[in-house]
């Protein structure tokens, strides 16, 4: 009897560890939503809209939430929280959040839950290294070998000779400011990441034209996202091709943590949202193509994934209004300016200076258009 009891307890512990990665963030989101509700006077139907999920989408959603509050001070406040893409789905299904943010396609089991989705924008995954690392480009196969643990030293990475024109670095180009994963201001040069010189201080002229012949060796420190992350899911789908990420990797819970780790470690390699690349790290060309908006639009840069907002049939009218706002022309222009690929990216000259009017795009039309891209 004692032996059977011990086996039962071991099984419970194992299940608890597997579920903790998704359900702990969901519980935190649910408690936060209850706290907001408890502080609301009277019995008003909606005093705030909770949006939860991907930490890749989070900083961009926070920008839109701030603009929404500025334009419409009488409407419910938008409460944006992280937790990861899988936690975002679970939060919508449990009612802890009205809208869920994903930085990957819906998984088959999530599609069966009857969720509706709209594609807010598309984003590239940038593979980043420390500015002191002379490597400037890598093939998909070698990237897979690094993340699977087959290649473990920088001396094993082939030195490629790029046949592409060198990428000129703009001297003294100003950087924009937007919110990072933690909500702090940061410099963003997402739309011009090809212009990062590798100088930690930035602002110097230079060029990137294939891997340097400088001898560079040492153990590769693999930095990855945790399971349940939308960025991790997209990276696994686009790069790993069924191979497992080495258990020796250092797993981080946000884009900001990956960026900070790589910025502080010359031997590190990681991957983050292109929109969150700054001058503390340097993006690599993949298969000879830099992660620029132009290369993503043309399909030449392969690491591109959708930013999705998921919701249920019974979503509140107030949340529907916010959906209309984030899929509208005004918000799309903001996201395009932050380096994301939107429906407005090809129409910048036509839409520049256009004032926002409420309900300028029907979210139902956007939803119908985006089902296939979102995996449904």
CATH topology-level fold name of the largest domain? D-Maltodextrin-Binding Protein, domain 2
Structural class: alpha/beta
Classify the beta-strand content into a percent band.
15-25%
What form results from the Cα inertia axes? globular
- At CATH level 2, the architecture of the largest domain is 3-Layer(aba) Sandwich
Main sheet properties: 9 strands, mixed
Radius of gyration (CA) equals 22 Å
Explain what the structure shows.
The protein is an alpha/beta fold and 376 residues long. The chain has 2 domains: 186 residues, Periplasmic binding protein-like II (D-Maltodextrin-Binding Protein, domain 2), CATH 3.40.190.10; 182 residues, D-Maltodextrin-Binding Protein, domain 2, CATH 3.40.190. The strands form 4 sheets. Strands 1, 2, 3, 4, 10, 11, 12, 13 and 15 form a 9-stranded mixed beta sheet that branches. About 21% of the residues have low confidence.
SSE order and pairing:
Blueprint: H1 2-38, E1 48-53, H2 58-71, E2 77-83, H3 85-94, E3 99-102, H4 108-111, E4 116-129, E5 137-138, H5 140-148, E6 167-169, E7 176-179, E8 185-188, E9 206-208, E10 221-225, H6 230-240, E11 250-252, H7 255-263, E12 268-273, E13 282-283, E14 285-286, H8 293-298, E15 304-311, H9 317-326, H10 329-337, H11 348-351, H12 363-370
Parallel strand pairs: 1-2, 1-3, 5-14, 10-11, 10-12
Antiparallel strand pairs: 3-15, 4-12, 4-13, 4-15, 6-9, 7-8
Helix pairs in contact: 1-3
